[in-house]
Design brief:
Length: 395
């Protein structure tokens, strides 16, 4: 499979109507305890938005008026570059969203549903081709700029504001472009579009490479037919898990207990196609997999003490493929505790939406199926790739 198959190059524009003021949104949000949040990524020349969905006790989503963020997106890009990052700190609760066409990052206060600030990177930072991914560790937000191949560091300020600190140039072993990122403690891990993975020390804020840049084992053994995309890290920082773009379902696990990446252990299944987006359950007993170029969601049993994946289950086909959507992309958890209860998954297409895939378990066996009433439409987005949940998972 060519590496270009990872890219979502659709660029669409449409006139957005009925955008309400942030003050109305704040009023509508009163009393809501849990949200799913979408980076609508609306392409230039239109102003992009972030849409909040209120979560009912049963998990159904009710769309709330969206927040105009002032810049523009690109309606596409890399699957692994998450354009939403949620922070639940001791003193503030924020959601950060990237605007790839404009080249900035916006901070939104969840309590007031208003913009707390925005910040550009350096004059050479850019992600207009394939987006700007985001992660945060509570003190800093890190942005992967896919055009300039840089990681930008922003300091988190009061009121969900941001202050740009600096950027560092990065590259895969074969000049691959920065893609997915994840952080845990003082470590940031990135993937590149040539199959390279790399970790960084962020104890001083700015990422400094650990010198462990390497091709993933699956990339090497498949002769570039698969390559890591998104990343998750166990709560204790023992294992890094990579979801691969592939013609099968490929997940790789690296033991990082030494403080550096080690050769990945590869887990492969022919049950479905691709695994570009992954997410651990809050109790770390399951690994959810968005079968990005297939039509389903999977879950592996995960042993957090050994890093081994086994068994699990696959949902049936998620409805309205082709007619409404082309890719299943980023995920967020239905429940921030236990096994997560399943996931919400973004549907990238001309009628973007958020599917709800519920989980039931019996011992080591599980079942995934799409909930009644799913999907929940996001008409403001013409290419939905990234969603987040508030409150977020605890790690």
């Amino acid at each position: 499979m060519r590496k270009s198959q990872q890219l979502c190059f659709w660029r669409r524009t449409a006139l957005l109507a009925g955008v309400l003021a942030a003050s109305c949104l704040a009023a509508a949000a009163t009393g809501a305890a849990q949200y799913v949040i979408a980076n609508d990524d609306v392409g230039f020349p239109f102003v992009t938005t972030v849409t909040f969905f209120a979560v009912s006790p049963g998990g159904a989503l009710t769309r709330m008026p969206q927040i105009q963020t002032g810049g523009s997106g690109i309606s596409g890009g890399f699957f692994g570059a998450n354009r939403i990052s949620v922070l639940k700190g001791n003193s503030q609760e924020c959601v950060y969203a990237s605007e790839a066409f404009t080249g900035d990052v916006v901070g939104i206060s969840i309590s007031s549903m208003t913009i707390g600030g925005r910040a550009l990177g350096s004059p050479t930072d850019g992600g207009t081709s394939n987006g700007i991914g985001l992660v945060n560790n509570g003190k800093f937000v890190y942005a992967s700029f896919t055009d300039s191949n840089t990681i930008g560091t922003y300091q988190v300020m009061a009121g969900c504001g941001l202050a740009f600190v600096n950027d560092v140039a990065v590259s895969g072993l074969a000049s691959g472009v920065i893609n997915g990122m994840a952080v845990r403690g003082n470590m940031l891990i990135g993937t590149y579009t040539d199959g390279t993975i790399e970790s960084f020390d962020i104890s001083a804020g700015t990422p400094v490479s650990h010198g462990d840049k390497q091709y993933s084992a699956a990339t090497l053994t498949s002769q570039d037919a698969t390559y890591p995309n998104s990343i998750d890290i166990t709560s204790d920082g023992h294992f890094a898990i990579f979801g691969d773009t592939s013609t099968a379902q490929v997940v790789e696990v690296s033991d990082i207990s030494s403080g550096k990446l080690t050769r990945t252990v590869v887990h492969t299944s022919k049950a479905t196609i691709s695994s570009s987006n992954i997410m651990l359950s809050p109790d770390e007993t399951l690994l959810y997999v968005s079968n990005t170029q297939g039509d389903s969601v999977s879950a592996y049993n995960f042993d957090k003490s050994t890093g081994r994946l086994s068994g699990g289950c696959v949902s049936g086909p998620v409805g309205a493929e082709v007619t409404n959507w082309s890719y299943l992309t980023g995920m967020s958890l239905i429940n921030p505790s236990g096994n997560g209860g399943g996931v919400y998954v973004a549907e990238f297409g001309t009628a973007s939406g958020i599917a709800m895939i519920t989980l039931t378990t019996s011992g080591k066996k599980c079942t995934l199926q799409e909930a009644a009433g799913s999907p929940f439409l996001d008409p403001h987005s013409l290419g939905l790739l990234s969603i987040g949940t508030f409150p977020p998972r605890a790690f």
